[in-house]
Amino acid sequence: MTLATTDAVALTGVHKSYTSKRGGEVVALDDVDLAVPQGQFLSIVGPSGCGKSTLLKIIMGQTRLSRGTLSFGGELPEGRHRLGMVFQQALLLPWRTVRQNLLLSHDLNGAPAGGSDRIADEMLAKLGLTDFADKYPNELSGGMQQRVGIGRALVHDPQILMMDEPFGALDALTRDQLGMDLLEIWERDRKTVLFVTHSVPESVLLSDRVVVMTARPGRIAEIIDIDLPRPRALETINTPAFGEYVTRIRRLLNSEHSAH
Amino acid sequence: MTLATTDAVALTGVHKSYTSKRGGEVVALDDVDLAVPQGQFLSIVGPSGCGKSTLLKIIMGQTRLSRGTLSFGGELPEGRHRLGMVFQQALLLPWRTVRQNLLLSHDLNGAPAGGSDRIADEMLAKLGLTDFADKYPNELSGGMQQRVGIGRALVHDPQILMMDEPFGALDALTRDQLGMDLLEIWERDRKTVLFVTHSVPESVLLSDRVVVMTARPGRIAEIIDIDLPRPRALETINTPAFGEYVTRIRRLLNSEHSAH
Amino acid sequence: MTTTSDRTTSVPAGASAGRPPRKRLVDQPGWLLATGLAVLLLTAWEAAVVVFDVSPLIVPAPSAVALSLWSGLADGTLLSHAWITLQEILLGFSLAVVAALSVAFLVTQSRLVDKAVFPLVVATQTIPKVAIAPVLLIWFGTGMTSKVVTTALLAFFPLLVNAIHGLRSTDPDQVAMFRSFGATRGQIFRRLQFPSALPSIVAGLDVAAIFAVTGAIVAEFVGSTEGLGYVIQATNFTLDVSRTFAVLAMLSAIGITLHFIIVTIGKRVVFWANDVSRLDH
Amino acid sequence: MTTTSDRTTSVPAGASAGRPPRKRLVDQPGWLLATGLAVLLLTAWEAAVVVFDVSPLIVPAPSAVALSLWSGLADGTLLSHAWITLQEILLGFSLAVVAALSVAFLVTQSRLVDKAVFPLVVATQTIPKVAIAPVLLIWFGTGMTSKVVTTALLAFFPLLVNAIHGLRSTDPDQVAMFRSFGATRGQIFRRLQFPSALPSIVAGLDVAAIFAVTGAIVAEFVGSTEGLGYVIQATNFTLDVSRTFAVLAMLSAIGITLHFIIVTIGKRVVFWANDVSRLDH
Amino acid sequence: AGVSACGGSADSAAGDTSLDVVVTTAAWSVETGSITLADQLGFLREEGIQANFTTAKSGTEAVQQVIGGNADVAVATPEPVMIAAQQGTDMQYFMPFYGHVIYGLAAVPDSGIGSVADLRGKRVGVTNANSTGATLLRTALKAEGMSENDVTIVPIGVGAQQITAVRNGDVDALAMYDTLYTSLRTQGIDVTDIPVPGLDQLFGGGFLAPKDALAENPEAYEKLGRAVAKSLAWARLHPEDAVRAVWEAKPETRPGPDQDEQKAVQDQIAMLETRLGALIPDPQVSSWTEIDPASVDRFADWALQAELITGKPPVEDVLDTNLGTGIGGFTPADLQPSAGS
Ligand SMILES: Nc1ncnc2c1ncn2[C@@H]1O[C@H](COP(=O)(O)OP(=O)(O)OP(=O)(O)O)[C@@H](O)[C@H]1O
Ligand SMILES: Nc1ncnc2c1ncn2[C@@H]1O[C@H](COP(=O)(O)OP(=O)(O)OP(=O)(O)O)[C@@H](O)[C@H]1O
Ligand SMILES: [Mg+2]
Ligand SMILES: [Mg+2]
Hints:
The complex is a heteropentamer, with 2 copies of chain A (about 260 residues), 2 copies of chain C (about 280 residues) and 1 copy of chain E (about 350 residues).
Chain A: E1 7-19, E2 25-37, E3 41-45, H1 52-60, E4 67-72, E5 83-86, H2 98-102, H3 104-108, H4 113-127, H5 142-156, E6 160-164, H6 172-189, E7 192-196, H7 200-206, E8 209-214, E9 219-225, H8 240-258
Parallel strand pairs in A: 3-7, 3-8, 5-6, 6-7
Antiparallel strand pairs in A: 1-2, 1-4, 8-9
Chain C: E1 7-9, H1 30-51, H2 62-74, H3 77-109, H4 111-125, H5 129-140, H6 144-168, H7 172-180, H8 185-222, H9 228-237, H10 241-269
Chain E: H1 3-6, E1 17-24, H2 30-40, H3 43-47, E2 49-56, H4 59-67, E3 73-76, H5 78-86, E4 91-96, E5 103-107, E6 123-126, H6 132-143, E7 152-155, H7 159-167, E8 173-177, H8 178-186, E9 192-194, E10 206-210, H9 211-216, H10 218-237, H11 239-249, H12 261-279, H13 293-305, H14 315-318, H15 324-327
Parallel strand pairs in E: 1-2, 1-3, 6-7, 6-8
Antiparallel strand pairs in E: 3-10, 4-10, 5-8, 5-9
Helix pairs in contact in E: 2-10, 2-11, 8-12, 10-11, 10-12, 11-12
C-alpha cells in the first residue's frame, strides 16, 4: 500500500512478533496494510488479543515493528502535538490532581495558565468531574480515572488521536455521552482518530471506516466503509442502515471467532 | 434490616465517606441496606463513581465502613474460602505464569498438584488461553489479563464471589461466552454472587436481583427481582420479559442520571 | 444454618458513646514506645554492668554515660564540637545529594554513561574512605572541606543506587504518553521519572543521612582538632570511656533526628505512595 | 500537503541484507566501553605522573601499581590476604542479608516492632564501627568473627531500609486478594510482599555488597594481622604506596565483580520488572 | 588462650603455656617484628611458651584488650596504663620494650627552629591531635611559658601522608615518635631534634600484664619475657639478619618491586636501631631487661604535669620488678637460633 497524499498514517506489510520470556514467538500482527486518510475517524474491532493495542503502540513508536513500513504524511507539525493516545489503563500521574492531569500537555508545552484554566473547566464539566477537579487519582473510582485519561488526550488535541478502549470502564450513559462529545470535537476539527472498541454499535455510530481484525495471527479481515450521514446523533442508532452495519460486522466477528 | 437465616451477607445502614487529601469529604455510600440471600446471583448497576467498588471492598473487609453494620451469616467455613473477588484491575502477579496465577488459591491452600493441573487446563480452555498457559502477565493483552483474573477467582471457588466489572475489557463474544460459563458454574453450586456491571442486559440475563444505585451520595434507588426462568441461555435475550426488565432498569438509570 | 452472624463489624469505637476504647500497646505513639524500650534496655545494661562487674574502661554504666553527657552539655564543650560535626554532616550530605542525583540523571539518560562510566563509579566505591583520607587531606587541606568531601563520599553511593533504581522503574507506557505530548527529555525526567523515583530516592536519602553521620566521624578521626570524632579520639586517648559513649549517644540522637526529618518530609512529598496503614487492619 | 513521508520506520537493519549495520559507540558491550574508559583514564594518570613529576609517595604511576600488583599476585601474598578478606566480605554480607531481611520482616509485619524497635536500630547505625571496635574485639575476639560482624554491621542498614521500602510498596489490593484466598500472614509475606519487594531488595543488595567490602577493610584496620586491609596499613608504614594502590585496585575488582554478580542475578530473578531498554529508543 | 591461660592451666597440646600478646602497632614492621622473632627463632619453644601475637592500633586499645580479658600481655606506652591505674585497674610492666620515652620534638630542615621557644607561631605536625606527641608538645610549651594556642597543631598522620606533608612544607616542626623521624631521614628529610630537657629519663613502656596474673603465675611471664628479650638482643646483634627474617615471616614488610632492596635493608636497619638502640645500649649486657622504678616515677610526674592523670599512682602499682633479672638471665652465647619454625 502506498502513501496517498492525504494519508495521515500508513502501514505497509507490517508484521510484529513478540519473543516470549520462556522462548517461543507470539505473532501479534501479520501482514497488516492500512492507510488512514487525514481527518478520518477509524475504528478497530476484533477479539481480545488480536493485536489492536499493538497496532496503536506501533504507530505511537512505543513498540518496534518486526517487518514492514510505517509512514506519516500530510501537514503534520514536527515532533510535537502530533500523536495523542488514551491507553487501556488510565495512566494518570498520582502526584497531580485531576485538573493538573488534564492540563499535562499544556504544562509540557508551556501554555499560558489563564487559557488552560478555562479549557480544564470545560473539560471537567464534559467529563462530569467538576467536583473532583482537585482530587488525586487514587481518590477516584475506576471509571472516573478513565475519564480523566480521555480528557487529557482531548485537551492535548493532537493531529492523530488514538484511543484504546477508552470507554471500557464506563456505564452506558456516560459512555454514550462521551462518545457524542468526542464526535462533536471531531466534527469541529476533523483530526484523524484511531479508535479501538469492543462495542460494535459504538464503532458504527462514530466511524467513517471500521477495521475488523482476526485473532492470532492478528490480520485485517475486512475494512468496512460506514456510509451514514453526518453529523450523527444517538438517534442514528434507530436507522435501518445502522442496524445493517452492526449485523454485518457482528457476523464477521462471529465467523472469525468460530474459525478458531 | 435484620439478618435472615438464609442471608449470606447483610449490610444495615452502611455509610462510607472518604476524607480527601486536600480536606473535604466525599460520601461514597449513604444509608445502604442490602441483604443477599445465600445462593443468590445479585447484580449491581449504577453510574460511574456511585460506590459500587466501595460496596464490594467493604464486604471484602478491605475498606472500613464509617457507620452501619456488616454481617455474614449461614454456613460459612471459618476464614478460608469465604470470599473471592475479581477486581476492576486484573491484579495478576507478574512473576507467575498464567497457569500459576490461575492456581494461586490452590497453592495457598496446599492443594495436591495433580488435581490442580486438570482444573487449570479446564479453566484455560474456558478462557481461551490454552496457548498462553506458560506466558507471563506482561506478555498478555489487556483483555487476556482480565480473563486470567476472572479465572483465578473461579478456580478459588469461594462461598461469596464478588466481581467488579469483570467483563469490561472484553469483546462482546468473549463476554457473552464467559457470562454463560459463569452462569453454568453458578447453576451447579449456587454460590452467592455479587456482580458489578455496566451492561444492563448482562445484569438482567445473569441475575436473580438487580440493585440500581444512584450517584453521589451512593444510595440504592431500587432493587428489582428478575423473574426469568432458569436455566437461562443467550436466547433469553430475545424474550419480551427480558426486554421489559432492561427498559425498566435503563429508565431508572436515566432518571437518576438526569437528576444530577 | 445458624441465625447468629459469625462476624459483625460495627460502628467504630469513636462514634459509639459509652464503650471505653481499649488502648492497646501498639496504639501508643511511636516515640513513647521507642523511649520505653530504650529505657528498658538501658536498665538491663546498667544491671549487667553491676552484676558482672564490667570494667568502666570497656563498657561504662549508662548512668555514668548520662552524667558525662550532662556535664559535657552543661559546660558547652560537647555542643560546640557537635556543631562542627553537624555542619560537616549537613554540607557533606547536601553535596552527596547533588552529586548522586546528577550521576543518576546521567546514568539513566545516557546509555553511554551507563555502560562506560557507571562501572568505574562502582569500582571507586569499594575504596575505603579511611584509606584515601590522607590523599583527601592533601587535596582539600586539613580544614572542613576534606571532612565534607569524605562525608559526601560515604553518603553518595546508597543514594545513587536508589535513585537509579527509582528512575529506571518508571512505567514505559507513561514515558510513551509524555513523548506523545511532545515532552522533551528534560521534561520527561523532571515531570515523570523524578517524581516516580521519589519513593525510592527517599529511602536512599534515609540511608545516606545515616552514613553521612558516620562519614563525618571517620573524616575527623583521620585528622582534625575539633568535632565529635575528635572528641571520641581524645576521650579514647584519655580512657574517658563514659565520655566516648556520651558522644556516641549524641551521634545516635543526630542520626535519629535526621531519620525522622527525612521520613516525615518524605511522607509529605510522596503523599501518593501506598499507605502502609492500609495493610494493617 | 506533501507526498513524502516525514518519518519512516523501516525494517530493522538485521533483517535487510546489503545495508551494513552502522555500529555506534553505545552499542558496544559494556565491559569493553568501561575498560576502554578505564584505560584512557589510566593513561592520562600515567602521563600526569610523568609530566608533573609527582612523588611516588603521593600518587604512584599506574605502571608501578601494575608491577606491584603483578609481583604481589605472582608470589601469592596478595592472593592469600585477598582470600582472607573475601571470606570476611562474603560471610559478613551473608550475615547482613539474613539480619536485614529478618528485621525488615519484623518491622513490616508488626507495628509494635516498627514503632518501638526500628528507631533504636536506626540510632545504632550512626555509631561509627571504628569507635566501638574495642568492644567488638572483646566480644568477638581478634579472629575473623569480629571482622565478619563489623562487615555485617556496615552492610546491614542499606539493605534493611531498601527491604522495608520494598515490602511496604506492596499493592494493598493484592494483599486484600491474598487475604480473600485465605492466605496466612506468612504466605502473604513469602508469596506477595517479598517478591514485590525484590527489585528494591536487589538495589539494597548492590549497596550492601559494596559496603561489605569497605566494612571488611575497616575491620581489618582496627586490629588484624592479615587481609587486604592489613596490607594497606602495612604498606603505608613501609611507604610502599604502589602496593597500597595495588590493593585498592584489587578491592575495586572485588567490588565490581560483586556488583555485576548481583545485577546479573537480580535481572534474572526480577525478570518481570520494567525493562530499561524499553525506555531507550 | 584467654585469662585462664595466664594461670598456666589452659595448656596447649604440646604442654606449653599459651599467652596472647597484643602489640601496639597499626601493622607489623621490623621494630615490632623483632618481638615476634622470638617465635621464629625458637626462643619461645625453648622456654615452653606458646605466644599468639596480635596488634592493636593504639596503646589504649591494647590495654583495653588486657582489661577485657581478651589478651594476657600488652606491649604499650605508659599513658593508658597510668590512667587505668588511677581508675583502679592494676596492670604492671614486667619488661621494657622502648628504651625511654619515644616521643620528641623535631624541626624541619630550614625552619630555623632550634629550641622549644622558637616554636611560637609555627605549625607543628602531629600524627593525630590526641597523640602522646601532641601531649608532649603541650607540656614542653607550658614549660617554656607558652600554651598550645601559641602554635598551630596540624594532624598529618603517618607514613606517606606524613612525608608528603613535610615535603610540601605544610609544617615547620614535628611532635611525634622516634621511628617516624628515622623514616623521614631515610627519605632524605633531615629533621633535627629539638631538645626537651629530661625526656630521655622517662620510662618508655613495654610488656605489661594484670597484676594478679603476674602474681599468680610469674614463671610464665618470665619465660615469655626471656624469649622475647633474647630475640631483641639477637636482632640488635644481627640487624640485617633480623630485617630479612621479618621479611620472611611478614612478607608485607618487604619492599615492593619498584623499590630498591638494598636501600630498603639499610632503611629498615635504621628503624630497628632507632627502636632497639635506646633499649639495648650494649648488646653484650642483658641488664637492660630491668626497669628502673625511678624512670617510671618520673614518667608519672610528667603525666601529672601533662594533666593526663590527676593523681600519681604508686610505682609498685604499675611496675613488677621481680621478673627483670630472670628475664635477663642469658648471655650472648645463648642467642643461637634453633631451626626456624
Ligand atoms: N481511596 C479513596 N479516597 C477517596 N475517595 C475515594 C476513594 N475511593 C473511592 N473514592 C470515591 O468514592 C466514590 C465511589 O467510588 P467507587 O470506586 O466505589 O465507584 P464505582 O461505583 O466503583 O465507580 P466506577 O464504575 O467508575 O468504578 C467516588 O466518588 C470516588 O471519588
Ligand atoms: N509485551 C509483550 N510481550 C509478549 N507478547 C505480547 C506483549 N504484548 C502483547 N503481546 C501479545 O500480542 C498479542 C496482541 O496483544 P494486544 O495487546 O495487541 O491485543 P489487543 O487486541 O489489544 O487485545 P485486548 O482487546 O485484550 O486488549 C497477544 O497475543 C499478546 O499475548
Ligand atoms: Mg488491548
Ligand atoms: Mg468501580
